[in-house]
Amino acid sequence: MKKFKFLGAIFYLLNILAAVSLLIGYAASHISPSFVLFPAFFGLALPALILLNILFLIGWMVVGRIRFVLSLIVLILGYQSIPKMIQLNKMKEASPDALKIMSHNVRLFDLYMWQEDKHTRNDIFRLIRTEKADILCLQEFYFSQDKTYEFKTLDSLMTFPNITYKHDEYSYVKGPNKWGIATFSKYPILNRGRVKFDDGEHNICIYTDIKTEKEIIRVYNMHLASIKLERVDYKTINDVYANSFSTYFGNEKMLLNKLKEAFQRRETQVNLIKESIAKSPYKVIVCGDLNDTPTSYAYQALAKDLEDSFLEAGRGFGQTYIGKFPSFRIDYILHSEGLVAEQFFTLPEKLSDHHPIVAYINWDKARSSDKE
């Protein structure tokens, strides 16, 4: 009997630690990493912490102990965080006049053949042709002006039926080769601009004023700071998954430093984007690779005055990053009030390390009529 009491006490202590960790994870989206850093790490682990507390809740209920109340209360306190990670929206038909927006981090069209498949670029092209988006936002875009080079990108895309106008800018140029970001549109582009990041890195955010059939909208296309994981970092993560800590303790400091730098850089970049959005004379659509999860401070800050298309019209977990870490939703299509997402899809294609995302966005007729 004493043995069972001892085990019960140990499990309850672990339950308390899991509950406290979950509370810290909730706080991550509200605490600046520049002010206090450690909650950001708990925020990254929030899905696992929620699952752990659910298991404790079920376990205590099965054995008939009142201790289940602890995890129940903590889970209830975070009811606003859970919908950011999973949605059960009913699928609806999009209106014929809705704008189809597609965003995809194309990882340089597999320029360096990470997938060892020289046809990946052509597969991406086929997907773009099939989707026929009205507005297409591509991150990690690559273009070469070397006419003898067979790896064509920009010139090929400009021949597609739904692509008439472009806005491409580059954060790194070496000879005729350019690395950056690009927005394509079937509608006329009236103005082009860039949100300047003064961090010496190659992250980039551009904005494009597009004259649609109804009104002018400003489309932001962003690629924010990544963690820059290398093979040794993935080995460290794999060791944690495999419960093998032999190499973990030699590499964890380097990994944590990379996470720290990325958290803080994204915070700065998001603040600059928000300043630009605040000055926009038009409704905005914000697309791209935030490189952070829906439970992060960067997401919370950016989405605070915007609507998330996935929350409005998505279904499932919406995972966009293809990999173990972070295997979460890190690509987004956000928009101003006055617009509404009628459909949202995370496409299944694995043509880079990100899934493409698509949203059908329309003008919110209900809000428009209220104003009238």
Automatic annotation (TrEMBL):
One GO BP annotation of this record: GPI anchor biosynthetic process
Xref: SUPFAM superfamilies: DNase I-like
| Pfam families on file | Exo_endo_phos
State what protein this is by name. Endonuclease/exonuclease/phosphatase domain-containing protein
In this chain the Endonuclease/exonuclease/phosphatase domain maps to 102-354
Mark the transmembrane ranges: 6-28, 35-60, 66-82
What would be one Gene Ontology cellular-component term for the protein? membrane
**CDD domains per the UniProt record, alphabetical:** EEP-2
